[in-house]
Amino acid sequence: MKFKFLGTAAAEGVPGPFCACENCRLAREEGGRSIRGRSQALVDDCLLIDFPADTAYRAWLGQLDLLKVKHCLVTHNHQDHLYPEEAAMLQPGFSHPADDVPLTFYGTADTLAPLKKQKGAVESGRIVLREVVPFESFTVMNYTVTAFPANHGAVGSAFYQISDGKTTVLYAHDTGYFFEDVWQWMESNKPQYDMITLDCTGGAFPEGFRDGHMRLGVNREVADRLDELGCLKPTARLFVNHFTHNCVSTHSELCIHADKLGFEVSYDGCELLLNT
Ligand SMILES: [Zn+2]
Ligand SMILES: [Zn+2]
Ligand SMILES: [Zn+2]
To answer: Is the Cβ–Cβ distance between 121 and 81 less than 8 Å?
Structure first.
């Protein structure tokens, strides 16, 4: 499986476009991996996770080929994960598709609600909305996907497990420490993760960030509990992702904190080849 992090910041991005704080100043100075856009990832060039406002720009830059993407998992309807107005660009007149295969969005009913308002795209059949129910696995192409209820502010928030039968990844954004019913599912089903990526909005903050979002210390608790339940392969790669400028300055500084707790730090464009 090829897994690519396209965007690794929280809503405002890093640096915040209008922000003059010291963390943003340092991020601008370091550049490169310290510059982070809105949350998004791509599996095997064809399965997109989330649809923020940065999506079109990534396609223009050649980081993402939207002509190859026919399926998109949506975690929740916060603006940095779903920018529904962009789906209107699929409607007749705004695009001339190469084929008649629609773009299917997957999410809970609450998450998909803003996309339903994109009448031109929905009524032309250019986008299809498929509701998912937490804990009920479903098939997307050759992937088995399971949604979990996220400990997050937006109603209907979910995070996803994606498996191609050989490689299984857990994409846990945005969420705080997992709900107990998620832990019970993990204990019963014992997924074997090759890679997990956890919400780290709180960066290296020493406290807080247990509900809604997480920080490195809480990420470690999640990884330890998954390990105790036998859900992490011995070779599993542990990533942190989804950072805010309030808690993060540069990529290099974040790596120092994350490394101490056994995590790798994602960055925009970070590409993993898992079991290939
Ligand atoms: Zn977010
Ligand atoms: Zn800032
Ligand atoms: Zn959110």
So the answer is: no
CATH label, 2-273, candidates 3.60.15.10, 3.40.50.2300, 3.30.70.940, 3.10.20.90:
3.60.15.10
13 CA from centroid of ligand 2 (Å): 9
How many whole angstroms from 219 Cα to the centroid of ligand 3? Answer: 17
**Which two tokens mark 239?**
């990533």
Domain ranges of the chain: 2-273
Q: Which residues of the chain have pLDDT under 50?
A: none
Which residues crowd ion ligand 3, with CB under 5 Å? 78, 174
CA of 27 to the centre of ligand 2 (A): 9
What pLDDT digit, counting tens, does each position of 165-203 carry? Answer: 999 999 999 999 999 999 999 999 999 999 999 999 999
Task: Name the CA radius of gyration of the chain, rounded.
Answer: 18
